Amino acid sequence: MEFKIKRGDLAGQKTPCLILGVFEKHKLSEPAEVIDKASGGHLSDILRKGDMDGETGRTLMLYGIPGVSCERVLLIGCGKRKEFNRRSYRKALAAAVTLLNDTRITTALCTLPEVIPAGMTRYRTVRDAVTTCADSVYHYDQTKQEKKAPRFPLKRLDLWIAEKQDTQTAQEAVHHGGAIARGVALAKDLSNLPGNICTPAYLADKAIDLGKDYPELRVEILEEKDLEALGMGALLSVSRGSRQPAKLILMEYRGGAQDAKPVVLVGKGLTFDAGGISIKPASDMDEMKFDMCGGASVFGAMLGALELALPLNLVGVVPASENLPDGDANKPGDIVTSMSGQTIEILNTDAEGRLILCDALTYCERFDPAVVIDMATLTGACVVALGKHPSGLFTQDEQLAAEILAAGEAAGDRTWRLPLWDDYQEELDSNFADMANIGNSRWGGAITAACFLSRYTKQYPWAHLDIAGIAWRSGKKKGATGRPVSLLTELILKRSGQLK
User: Fold this and answer.
1) How far is Cα 452 from Cα 374, in angstroms, rounded to an integer?
2) Which pLDDT score, from 0 to 100, does residue 103 have?
3) Which residues contact 456 (CB under 8 A, 6 or more apart)?
């Protein structure tokens, strides 16, 4: 989808459809007031008839508006003016684009970025318009014979800005938003694919393809023989139950100074998780193809950095495997040795994500990183604690915690910090190994999982994002969300100095 910034006389804009915001009690947005005046009060007359109440997301298509050059006017409800916030702004944008995408309209002009919600800036309204609209037109059909995409999908959305001095800021927001949207779409595409297609080998091939498209990206794939030579017994123990060999996918982008320490992103790439011998219930097990959403987010963030040619060094690390029951699979009570030399008693084979991540985190030491951030659909306990809105954030680094929390708020991809106190570490005590892979009680499961990972991250600043609640949706709208690509891209944009 293409986005362009437009300026000039709004009433004179020639477009198939002009999108205008309307608030409750028939209050027009500033751009709508311009069109109302040019049309001799036509919009006000329509609203007084009661066809449009301004409720957030409600729509009304109008034709033959006098005094204007557009073919149609689409009125979008924005709710109460005093309560207009980012959430209602995004909802209004999504409603507008969904309606347009279901019609024959391929190009439209949107004025909603000119109506700035509380707490937002011109940059944020424009960037949100790009990312929200791109998200609304995303359509998965890679494994469908009958393509049910709209016959005439919206191809271009112009964004109208009133003041000339806002043009440069708006264009920068379109540039950034487009890169983020493409990264989110890549993460969704990978995550939505079924496990029989998106295998560890498939992910590795996608990384290689990315390296071919962007020569500045160095890609290396470590095979099982390489992992064995490195002593990655934890990762390899998970893949033993699968016919699909494990991979460690390494993507390295050097856009910064040669001696600058890189930001390292680590994503769990469990392409299907049946739970192993500790098998999961059959209900909704199909959704375990989404257990690689952390890895997919690394791909998305890497693509965003490449498209923006960011001046920083960035490394993506994706440990990829399946977790299935088999005669050679992990068994409860087995003890494996991680790359760090620490031994792990496997009390539950369904706590496998931390096993593949711990070896990947140890491997990250060789990059001498400025910071390491891992993301994983790690625990159902995090979903119980926080629901489906924020990611769970764990770190003992106060400065890093503040940085990630701020990036999440700025990107509209929020996190919530949970404790990572030493008090929880004793939950991992084992009589037979250096640690167990789950806590000794059912309580605080997301925290004990983070405590487990923390034992492999003592050589660098580190944070863990538990994205189990936000990586995909269930029900009628089942599918990947592409989160937390927006948060990660926001973070690296700021680290690279491209955002103040």
Assistant:
1) 13
2) 85
3) 338, 340, 342, 357, 358, 359, 361, 362
Hey, what amino acid is at 260? A
DSSP 55: -
Handedness of CA 99, 103, 107, 111 (dihedral sign): negative
Rounding to the nearest 10 degrees, give the CA dihedral for residues 390, 394, 395, 396. Answer: 120
Q: In angstroms, how far is CA 89 from the centroid of its own chain?
A: 19
Give one DSSP letter per residue of 269-293, joined into a string: EEEEE--TTSPPPSTTGGGGGGGGH
Provide the 10 A C-beta neighbour count for residue 104.
10
Helix 445-454 vs helix 353-363: crossing angle, to nearest 10? 30
**How big is the chain, counted in residues?**
500
Question: Residue 500: its pLDDT value, please?
Answer: 73
Catalytic residue annotation: 280, 354
CA distance 346 to 336: 8
Q: How confident is the model at residue 101 (pLDDT cuts 50, 70, 90)?
A: confident
Q: What is the mean pLDDT of residues 305-314?
A: 97
Cβ-contact 24, 79 below 8 angstroms:
yes
Within 13 Å and on the Cβ side, how many CA atoms surround 251? Answer: 34
Question: Over the stretch 385-434, which tens digit does the pLDDT of each residue have?
Answer: 999 999 999 999 999 999 999 999 999 999 999 999 999 999 999 999 99
Q: How many helices (H) and strands (E) does the chain have?
A: 14, 21
The DSSP code for 482 is: -
Chain position carrying tokens 């084992």: 430
Which residue type, as a one-letter code, is found at position 161? I
CA distances in angstroms from 190 to 50, 216, 247, 283, listed in the order given = 45, 22, 16, 23
User: How far is the CA of 385 from the CAs of 40, 290, 382, 445, in angstroms?
Assistant: 54, 20, 5, 10
Provide the whole-model pTM: 0.96
Looking at residue 56, its amino acid is T
Between CA 319 and CA 326, with CA 320 as vertex, the angle to 5 degrees is 125
- How would residue 145 be classed by pLDDT, with cut points 50, 70 and 90? confident
Amino acid identity at 154: L
User: What CA–CA distance (Å, rounded) separates 123 from 166?
Assistant: 9
Burial class (CB in 10 A: 0-12, 13-18, 19+), 190: buried
What whole-number distance in Å separates Cα of residue 207 and Cα of residue 318? Answer: 10
DSSP letter (8 states) at residue 153: -
Quick one: tokens of 329? Answer: 């699979």
Model confidence pLDDT, tens digit, residues 180-213: 999 999 999 999 999 999 999 999 999 999 999 9
CA distance 149 to 171: 29
What are the percentages of helix, strand and coil residues in the chain, rounded to 5? Answer: 40, 20, 40
User: Can you read off the two tokens belonging to residue 434?
Assistant: 């250096």
Strand partners, 75: 20, 60
Report H helices in 164-320. Answer: 167-192, 200-213, 224-230, 233-239, 293-308
